[in-house]
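for the writeup, i need someone to sanity check this before i put it in the appendix. the sequnce is what the collaborator sent (i think, or maybe the updated version? ugh). structure was predicted straight from it, no edits. if anything looks off just tell me and ill rerun, i have time this weekend
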Amino acid sequence: MQPAAAFGPEELADRLAVLIGGFPRVRIAVAFSGGGDSVALLAALAALARRHRRLMLRAVHVDHGLQPGSRSWSRQCAQLAGALRVPIIVRRVSVDLAKGQSLEAAARAARYRAFALLLGADERLLTAHTLEDQAESVLLQLLRGAGVEGLAAMHADVPLARGRLVRPLLDVPRAALREYARRRRLEWIEDPMNLDLRFDRIYLRQEILPRLRERWPGAARALARSARHAQDARGLLARIAREDLDAAADGRDLSVTALRRLPIERRRNALRLWIAERGGRMPQSRHLAEVAGPLLAARADAMPTVTWAEGGVRRAAGRLSWQSALTASAAPSPPAAPSPPAAPSPPAAPSPSAATTPPIAVAAVDVWSWRDQPIVWLPGARGRLEMRRDAYGNLDLETLPAVLAVRWRMGGERLRPRPGGPSRTVKSLLQAARIAPWERAAMPLVYADERLLAVADRWIDAAHLAREGVRARGRIVWHRTPRRARPGSANLVT
């Protein structure tokens, strides 16, 4: 589609017809900051919604709470949306900075988490990102030394939760949106942070892009065009990586032999996709080079590992295994000698509101009063255990003591995984399931009355397996992700 300088309902409808199948019979949510760009987008969509009754439109505003007047800003956004006769939802979130993360990145992450939670099935979230926003993204990625993945910058249409994220204005100059808003005499909010040169994107917007345009008037459009070229290249590389991963697959692991047959560039390309599919964030180039080079070249009996903050890769038995930040940081040393569990409380039916009860943290050896506290956080970044009521669960809650113990392997543990079957050592079960040695140390063991009840959520002792006719059923779920900061509360504004 050729870039267009004009902006209005007609031009927007043409773009949406290309990007959204079934338009205008769709559900659309607009990421509404209250700034000039999002106001123009919402106004043009509101005009389309009046023409096409089957277009269901709403606005979503995220209040990061980063400024003293953020609540007032939210009320202004509600008024602006109300003037356009568009319903609006306001979600208030907390912005938690991870180590080494910028405030910009943390706010964006919090914002899109909120969008993902609010987005309905098959609903499209539209943002008002413009040509200049795309150019800024390319420049930022260039300055970070990004590869094709980063230089592809923002895509016009990508999955988001149960719906999709659509950016229909990546080829539209910001000036065209502001001109449309001025012609319609629309009001908008000026964010004071858009003048704060401490933020990298704002510095590029206010200082660098204007100077580039002085020498190269078409600089923004040229940078955006480079992003489209990078997106094409990224698609091709993804297809090659998919073929290479399929050839090297060994369950969820990768065959060292198969990877070694590939040229080094294809190894790195395949590993990027594999790490992304395991839920990991991209490592730095040096980490990826270590995995693709020295780790694969290590002697056959070695068990080398390459780790970074978000996880890592291990080699063992001719395979590469992904380890999350959980297993990468879990200490393999055995815990202290076990202490006896507290005296059990009288049996009681699990509370329907138990999921809202704050979780408790445990030491390496402690007790788990699962009726009162269905969720228990584990030490050493080992995630959390949940006792979940489930009508089809494999665990008989009627026979389960009210107090359980949570421990870790010390060697020699046994349970009977099948009724009438033999007792098995935990070590033999782990080996048969091909669970990597470094993952075994992180797996919690659940004890009932000093008898091993469960190995994480993999095996249950036959004495507590639910049989036909049992009504109170459940299951143990091991969430492997480390504990994160509790998200902020949400409020709705209509």
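The first helix runs from residue 9 to 19. The radius of gyration is 27 Å.
thx in advance!!
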